[in-house]
Each structure stands twice: as structure tokens, then as C-alpha cells.
Amino acid sequence: MNRDSNSYTIIYASVMVVLVAVVLAFTSQSLRTYQKTNEDNDKRQQILRSIHVQATPNEAKTKYDALIKDAYLVNDTGEKLEGDAFAADVAKSFAAHEYPVFIATVDGATKYIMAMQGSGLWGALWGYIALDDDKNTVFGADFSHAGETPGLGAEIATESFGNEFSGKKIFQQGEFKSIAIVKPGKSAIGQDYVDGISGGTITSQGVDKMIFDSLSGYVSFLTSKNQ
Questions:
Q1: How far apart (Å, rounded) are the C-alpha atoms in residues 169 and 187?
Q2: pLDDT at 25
Q3: Contact, 170 vs 136, CB < 8 A?
Q4: In a designed cystine with 204, which of 12, 106, 132, 196 is the match (CB 3.0 to 4.6 A)?
């Protein structure tokens, strides 16, 4: 075949495209198991941080299995559902009115961990919040983001921000109020609150809305005497 012909060029380019596609597909498939393991361990680390437990990726599964005693989904009425709480895509689960719950035992005390998801300035926000066995007082919280501004909105992912929530209550006199995120120096009437991130107003507002919207789905579960 004439290597200077248009036909040769087209055939050569087509073969190379197919070969590269096959190699990339094989590589992606080969790495998928490792990617899934990393994703699962990252989720375990986030859940553990909500109960003040730090773990490396290699430690995450062992510590998670030791501390998380149960995990399930609940619906709007607080009833347990069939399904894998850990494997659930939180955004899709919330859309279907199914909410993941993780039950941990920390120093002999029960902690209820709920998932959260929302949006910030540049993308998705998510996190986990753990309540004491009164299903009201916050034991701990952990927040993550897809692309908030470093040094500003991204500060929600720091341990110091999550620690602000400890001891706050989501119910006031039996009524769900959530926890407000306010500008530093400001306050919120009728509910517990924490200071937002200086210079990260929109991200802070996103966290505020995320907490309220996410925990709203758990209200029946948290007020039920049967769980």
C-alpha cells in the first residue's frame, strides 16, 4: 500500500485509535478494583472522622468494622428499609427518600451517624454528622467538598470547623431546628449555631442548607421511640 496515499493515512489512524481505546479500556478496568477500594476507604475515613476517629487508608476498614455495629436505610417515616447503606449513592438515595444510617459504639456509648449532601459555590458538598444516643446532641461532624476555594470555602473540610458542631442540638423543645451557620460575630435566634467561614459566605450558606435539608429526612427516625 502506498504510504503517501489518503487511504493509508485513514487506515493507519483508525487502527491506532482502536488500539489506544483498547489499551485505555483495559487499563481502566484493571484499575477499577483499586479505585473502588480507595473510594470505599475514603468514605470509611469520613464516617470515622464524624466520631472523632482518625484512620489511614490502610486502617480504615479495620477501624470501621470495629466501631460501626450496624448500617441501614430509613424512609421519611423512620422505618428501616432493605438495602446497603454503605454502598448507597447518597444523592440518589435522598432523591428516593431513603436515608443511610450508621450505628457506632464509642467508649460504650451509641452514636447515630447520618449522611448529608448539598452544593456549595463551585460544586457538591457532602458529609456525615454523628449524634449522641439522645438523637439530638451532636457528637461530631465531618464535611467534604468537590471544589471549594482553597483557604476560603474549602476550610469546611478542616477538623476545626467540624469540631464547632460538637455539643450543638438539632432539636429545640422537641422541634427540629437544625444548626445554623452564621457570619462570625452574628447569632441565630431559636436554634444552635456555629460561625461560618470568613470569606466563604456562599459555601457557608451551602453547608447551612445542606444540614437542614439532609437532616429533615431523618426527623421521623430521630424522634421515633422504636429505633
A1: 15
A2: 65
A3: yes
A4: 196
Bridge partner residues of 72 (DSSP) = 101
CA–centroid distance for 194 within its chain: 19
Coil, helix or strand at residue 192: coil
3-class DSSP state of 153: helix
Question: What amino acid occupies position 198?
Answer: S
CA–CA dist 137, 130 (Å, integer) = 9
Grid cell in block for residue 106: 464509642
Cβ atoms within 10 Å, residue 61 = 14
- Sequence spans of domains, the chain: 45-223
CA distance 57 to 74: 28
Cell numbers of 95, please? 432523591
- Between 89 and 9, the more confident residue is 89
Whether 49 and 41 have beta carbons less than 8 Å apart is answered as: no
Q: Kindly give the residue spans of alpha helices, DSSP state H, lying in the chain.
A: 6-49, 57-67, 90-95, 159-163, 201-216, 219-223
